Amino acid sequence: MDALEQAFGAVLMLLVLLDVFLTVLYARAGAGIFSQRLARMIWRLFRHLPMGAARPAALSFCGPTILVLLVLVWSTLLAFGAGLIVHPELGIGIRASTGETPTDFITAVYVGGSSLSIVGASDFAPHTAAMKVLFLFNSVIGTSVISLTLTYLMQVYSALRERNALGLKLHAMSAETGDAAELIVRLFPDGELSGGYDNLSGLAGAMAEIKEGHHFYPILFYFRFREPCYSVSRTAFLTLDTLSLIKSALADDTAGWVKRSATIQQLWSVSLMLVSTLDRTFLDQVSRQAGEPTDDMRELWWARYLGALPRLRQACVPLTANEKKGAEFYVELRCQWDPLIAILAPAMAYSMHEIDPAGSGQGEATHPRQG
């Protein structure tokens, strides 16, 4: 029975160490034994709490809460596992420095947890070679886990800062409107393409970092801010809508080199990979978005395209002469990414009005396919 108890303790410690390895060192979206399940459980708990108007503010505490609880779970399970190993040895291989040695399980967890800490337990000492090795091994484990956890926390917040900086940058570049047409006007003032291309190159590099940040540190998914401009959904929406307009509306003769550039392709591919990875890993719903958009949605996107053209034309952005073909291409491109955003945004407790504020005020436009 004692051997079974110690074996269970050893397996538990190994599982925790494996979870630390998968979460901190292996660092891939969807990896982890306890960490991913704990994060989902806490997020669902926060989502379903009746908080009323305080809900956005309360949800902003979810990410930090998950990190704190994750460290507590790792520490508690490691101490519990060490206690299972130590328990049969109390009074034999491990004895109190003074007086009689207690043999209850709480004392075993205390001794096991103390052996994992940097300070250690001064009132209990190992008296056999096996227990001395165990105490030494536990001290190495405790020091390593603490160091890895501190490093992980710093990296998570560094990646979070980069994500927020990109979201704020895009929001500011669109004159705080969240409108792709306004962003293009700011990118290509007076039809000047070179400066906008340089800005797009910077955005492409930043978006690749954000995508890899979410891939390496999946906990980022659960960091939600009250301001929609910091959300991944808004960042991806504004980027992909801007690229869709560039690909469909700009003239081939004067702006073709921009549309065919590696920068545009990189930004498009990375943005799509970001939202599809988040949907697949955290929501398991990529397969559910395969349905064709409704005719009403296509009509709305068509009108959205036509509504953007006067603003672009006013800013002297070179536009294609075939508006109908451009509108068809815009709708085709939007069909590739809009369903992904429509899944991701509500999953993070954002309305589509918050993600696409420019779309809510969209006026009616004459449809070229209608006489």
Question: First CA to last CA: what distance?
Answer: 85 Å
Please report the total strand number as a whole number.
2
Instruction: Name the helix and strand elements from N-terminus to C-terminus, one letter apiece.
Output: HHHHEHEHHHHHHHHHH
Uncertain stretches:
361-371
Structural class: mainly alpha
The whole-number mean of residue pLDDT values reads: 89
The percentage of residues in β strands lies in under 5%
Q: What's the total helix number?
A: 15
Largest sheet: 2 strands, antiparallel
Into how many domains do the coordinates divide? 2
Widest sheet: strand ordering: 1-2
Q: Tell me roughly what share of residues is in helical segments.
A: 55-70%
Q: Report the C-alpha radius of gyration, rounded.
A: 27 Å
Architecture overview:
The protein has 15 helices and two strands. It has 371 residues and is mostly helical. The chain folds into two domains: 149 residues, no CATH class; 187 residues, no CATH class. A two-stranded antiparallel sheet has the order 1-2. Helix 4 packs across helix 5, helix 6 packs across helix 9 and helix 9 runs antiparallel to helix 13. The C terminus is likely disordered.
